[in-house]
Design brief:
14 helices; four-stranded antiparallel beta sheet; Aminopeptidase; Alpha-Beta Plaits; homodimer; 2 domains; 20 strands; 454 residues; alpha+beta
Chain lengths: 454, 454
């Protein structure tokens, strides 16, 4: 290890209590985007914290919640962009929390609070790493920029337009994403892409009011039946999506992607047990085919069904309305607008012009070249910190607003951070392990140091 | 009009305030079967009221809520049975009531209370009619029996067994059912049959917990999808029910049935407007075909769908559970146990052994011979009271526990009573018009008088 790295690590270890204190300060500020609770206050607080740590910072308007933009000058010419978010999931159900969600609590080697992992811990992680590098060097070795948004937990609806509008201001050479961390056995994870999403509400109204099923059963149109029949035309029981042209733009995984998947440990047995599944769809039983299907296949998932009477016992009602929420995950190069249009055409062609669809959220899929030099340096620096190779996922099943960063700003994106599988992200008792925070800071610092130096 | 009828009518008119007071007393006693609220207390009160009016009465156990049984001796040999129920629907939503639901309130020519029409008004109607006839005659012209149950509003699950067990005790020659009344233009209604019902809950569980749709979308079984696919196999978009053998026991309407239907006014335009329908299923546009389909076709109605996230906006969840409530209305000679069995066989054959079904309520269809002498006397006496012919429906779309009365006790059943279309039965502000109460008592009294005399 070179001297600078030794000094960086020392600084991080010496200041861990300071950063935990700063994390507590940030977690104490509510910032629930779904409920618009504390959003403006948090944007101001994050701006202050960036300034306190030597960065220029401002609150920028978007078409939704404000975005905190920050920047700092380095000695090198390259620029590193940090994408993060200051908003959190709602804390409910409150009675399942063992300590107040907006009061950071330390128990044993863990810290508990809403947003402590997702994503306030990562904001602190980046500040701590940058500070340590600057203290060790006397200056930052590269320029840095921050985009810290306030709508990630509600699907980042305004990020694509924000990035497009401010693409000159946000220009950079590489990007560190908002998450990262280790698996059950402490192996750090690298995600090199995300599927896109097209989240659609289906609504049917067949009458102005519900009717008694004895009156209308034989002669009234039934909203629940219309919905069931319409949904049934979308996907076969063998999981084939039936919308004409749905698969047109699907790119198969490359040989390189498949090689990366093949190197990943087979989690199929563990996942099956965790979720109490009898088995996977299509008779999948783990292995490369399971790994490939899990992330390289587009999906059509019913997330919710709602119609008529849902209480105990019986109510003989014929429902006037029915809704479904359906989430399509898209792989490169599928596009939400195209899928939405094909869906409408399909429903009309199948006789379901009465079924209304509304696009509630969308984002395009994006993939990073696994052989990009920035990916390479991220993987190499991780070995130093974690003592083992990162597990590289060529794409993950989830979605995020990475498309504009990859395809408008033309940035390679890597993940690095402090998450771990029992972090209860989006659930009560969200938590991080203090040691993961330390490791995440060290890895982030090494990426900055090496990126600035090369 | 003969002297006795004049005396009967006079007695009814002289005592209407007394019976309104008794109705207020009965409505003040809560008797919500779905919530088991006030059930035993009401059974005792009804027993007391029968005794106060000269009938022997007892509270009899059933496998569920107690049944009030009553009897009174007459001079003739024939026996008339009254089927009624003392339980009511829940009063919720309370904020929509203009006066307390369990405090009878008189406004203009109407009386308001939960259960005032369904079915406490009918209990009072029968007592008032019997008292008037007895006062006019000096004795009752026929024996009478009462079966007043406490589970009608929850589907009368124990009535078939109760009737079968006590068939000797309940032996009679004819039966007056628990409802009756007039249409919008004051025409009295006669219902000569009811469809059966088979109310089934469908349940699917595919995992022990919900999953993130990004994780499971391509590889996890989805409870909502399993439910949609299973339901889709039950009925075509052209309303044909696809369960093998479903139609095996369906009897087509007789020529007599069709003639009765043909005489009924065409309500299709009014119903279409009331419910805000664009049109009826299968292109029906009123007329005999519409009337026939509405009551002589069996149905498969989705009453409720419940799965996953149903709130505002998006939640990217893959649901572990899904349920549907489905109501089959059956026509003679279909049987709920047979339909339930055929449904299970069908689901298994279609690959849906994972879809559990539970029979929540059931009752067999029953039809009365329109040319039965008891029907004839009911229709004739109505003309006297209402000044016009009854509208005779050979069967109605709804269901009730009439099967054991028709097929175990071998009784002809007629309807007579005090309902009217704006009575808000099962809804807030349930009400009756005082004049309908008077007419219902007079018609009931005439049926008793004529039945005893012939």
């Amino acid at each position: 290890m070179n001297d600078t790295l030794t000094k960086i690590d020392q600084h991080i270890e010496d200041h861990v209590e300071h950063w935990i204190e700063q994390l507590g300060r940030l977690c104490a500020q509510r910032s629930i985007s779904a409920q618009h609770d504390g959003i403006e206050e948090t944007a101001v607080l994050v701006t202050e914290m960036l300034r306190e740590n030597g960065f220029a910072a401002e609150v920028m308007p978007s078409n939704g919640h404000p975005v905190v933009y920050g920047e700092g000058e380095g000695t090198g010419e390259k620029t590193l962009l940090f994408y993060l978010h200051y908003d959190v999931q709602p804390p409910e159900p409150l009675d399942l929390w063992n300590s107040p969600p907006f009061e950071m609590t330390r128990r044993d080697d863990k810290l508990y609070a809403r947003g402590i992992s997702d994503d306030k811990g990562h904001i602190i992680c980046r500040l701590a790493a940058l500070t340590a590098v600057r203290e060790a060097y006397g200056s930052l070795p590269c320029n840095v920029k921050f985009v810290i948004e306030g709508e990630e937990e509600i699907g980042s609806p305004n990020m694509p337009q924000f990035v497009e509008k401010h693409q000159e201001k946000l220009a950079a050479d590489a990007c560190i994403w908002e998450f990262g961390g280790v698996d059950y056995d402490g192996t750090p994870q690298q995600a090199l892409g995300m599927r896109g999403i097209c989240y659609i509400q289906f609504s049917v109204q067949t009458a102005s009011q519900d009717a008694h099923s004895g009156l209308g059963g034989s002669i009234f149109p039934n909203a629940a039946w219309r919905l069931v029949w319409a949904l049934n035309t979308l996907k076969d029981a063998d999981e084939t999506i039936l919308i004409p042209g749905f698969y047109d733009d699907v790119l198969p995984p490359s040989e390189r992607d498949l090689a990366l998947l093949d190197k990943l440990p087979d989690q199929s047995a563990r996942v099956k047990e965790t979720y109490g599944l009898d088995g996977y769809v299509g008779g999948l039983e783990g292995g490369l085919e399971w790994k490939k299907t899990a992330v390289f296949e587009p999906t059509c998932t019913i997330c919710g069904l709602d119609s008529g009477y849902q209480g105990e016992g019986t109510k003989t009602v014929l429902p006037a309305t029915a809704t479904a929420k359906v989430d399509f995950r898209m792989v490169p190069d599928q596009r939400p607008d195209d899928i939405f249009k094909k869906l409408r055409t399909h429903l009309d062609a199948q006789g379901f012009a009465d079924v209304a669809i509304e696009l509630l959220a969308n984002g395009r899929p994006a993939k990073i070249d696994p052989d990009d030099p920035f990916v390479k340096l991220t993987l190499e620096t991780a070995v130093d910190v974690y003592g083992k190779e990162m597990m590289v996922q060529p794409i993950i099943g989830g979605s995020g607003p990475s498309y504009p960063f990859v395809h408008i700003l033309n940035l390679p994106i890597v993940s690095a951070g402090l998450g771990y599988p029992d972090g209860q992200v989006h659930a009560p008792n969200e938590n991080i392990r203090i040691n993961d925070l330390l490791l995440g800071i060290k890895h982030t610092a090494r990426i900055i140091e090496r990126f600035g130096r090369e």
